Amino acid sequence: MTSGPGTVCDVQPGLGPEAPGPSTRAGRLGNAGSGTVIVTVPGLRAHVPDHWQTRLAAALPNVRPVTPLGLANLSLDERVAELHRTIEAAGGPVVIVAHSAGVITTVHWAARHADAAHRVRGALLATPPDLADELPAGYPSLSTLAELGWLPVPRRPLPFPSIVAASADDALGDPALVRALAGAWGSRYREIGAVGHLNPASGYGDWPGAEPLIKELDHPEAPR
User: Fold this and answer.
1) What dihedral do alpha carbons 115, 119, 122, 124 form, nearest 10°?
2) In terms of pTM, does the model score above 0.90?
C-alpha cells in the first residue's frame, strides 16, 4: 500500500478487535515510561462512560482527561486552552491520546504552542475526521466549524512523534484522506481494521489496541 509523504504505513489489524483483552492492559501500561502522563483528548462528545477513553482513565492512575465539552459548546479555542492547561498541569512528559475531533484539537494545539511541544513524547491520533465533506446528521456543518476556527486543519509536520490509527470503514474519515493527513503531519499510519468511528456506537467500549500504540510512543526517543 502506498502512503503519503513522510508517512510510514503499516497494516495492523491486530490493533483492532483481535488485540489482547482488558485483563492485561493495566499491567502493560503500568510498566510504560516512568513518570509519563497520558492525556486523553475527546472529540465533540460529552462525557460517555462507555467510551474507551473514559475506561482508560478509570483503569490507569496516570491518565489526565481533557474535559469533554460536548456538542453544546463547539469552541475550538476552549478545547485548545483546556488541552494546554492539562499538559502544563502534568508537570512532566505526556503522551497524548486523541480521538475523532480531539485529533484536530491536538494539531491546532501543536500549531499554537510550539514552545510546549517538548513536553509531548508522542501522540496517538485515533480515527480523525477528514472534514473534506459535510459530516453525518447530528454533527455541525463545515461552515460552522470554519467559523469557529476548526478549518482549515493544520497540515504541517507535528513537532513530536505521532501515530494515526485509521479505520477502514469510518463514516467520518475516508481512508485515503486520513492517510493524506497523516502524511502532512509526519505521522506513522496504522490501519486498525473495520472499526467504524472507534466509539461505543461502533462497538468500542474497550479498545485494547490502544495499549501497544501508547507503549510504542512512550519513550524519550520514539521513532517518527
Assistant:
1) -90
2) no
Decide if 52 contacts 102 (C-beta within 8 A): no
pLDDT in tens, 136-167: 999 999 999 999 999 999 999 999 999 999 99
**Please, where are the H alpha helices in the chain?**
25-30, 52-59, 76-90, 101-112, 142-147, 175-185, 210-217
Q: Place 214 in a pLDDT band, splitting at 50, 70 and 90.
A: very high
What three-state secondary structure class fits 160? coil
Phi, psi for 29 (deg, rounded to 5)? -70, -30
User: Helices marked H in 152-221 — which ranges?
Assistant: 175-185, 210-217
Q: Which residue has the cell 492485561?
A: 24
Report which residue type is found at 191.
E
